[in-house]
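User: Round two. Same drill as before: sequence, then structure, for each protein.

Assistant: Same drill it is. First protein:
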Amino acid sequence: MLAHLCGIAMFYHFRWLPLPYPNVSEAIATYHVTRCFYREVAQRQEFEQYCQWYYETAAKHQQELEKMQRDINILGWFIRR
């Protein structure tokens, strides 16, 4: 009877044993791929934000240039070129 109880106890405690880890190199590779993916996503978002800022700034500068070209050239009156 004791052997039978020990067998049940061993089976009962078996669920508390840690499961063997998957291949460590596989886990590291998965982590590396995941990290690279999130880094790529972040870089693309930053680049998209930069492009948006650049286009807005370029449009603003174009408007300023057009406005400056319509202004009267007061300095040209003094230089007389």
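Second protein:
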Amino acid sequence: MHRPSLLIILTLAITACATPEYQRTYNQCSIEAYDRYPARIELIESECSREVEIDTGKTECITTYEENSERTVCGPLLETVTETYACEIERDLNSGSRSLFIRQCTTNQCLKTYGNPDCETE
């Protein structure tokens, strides 16, 4: 389930500054890396945060004037604060090994095929 989305993200990350040859080699190594080191997801307890609005106990009023009438609307004054809470996040236990394999494989294949670690043809 995670394999296609991670491959897309990895591919996009190298697209900006890599040669087409490097991108092809990287993608080939990524496929092999996912075969050797598939995603092994573990849920871990963590602390997350979110923005919440709390009532300050004060009232805020806004008065508007139209033609010969005055209208006042009052409501609670809210304040935005950051709240922390316990949550579970996913961690891929094979991510580090897979990334290392991809880098080494790509470098080795570029050196073997193009004579340099960046797959540069010129």
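The chain has a mean pLDDT of 89.

User: Perfect.
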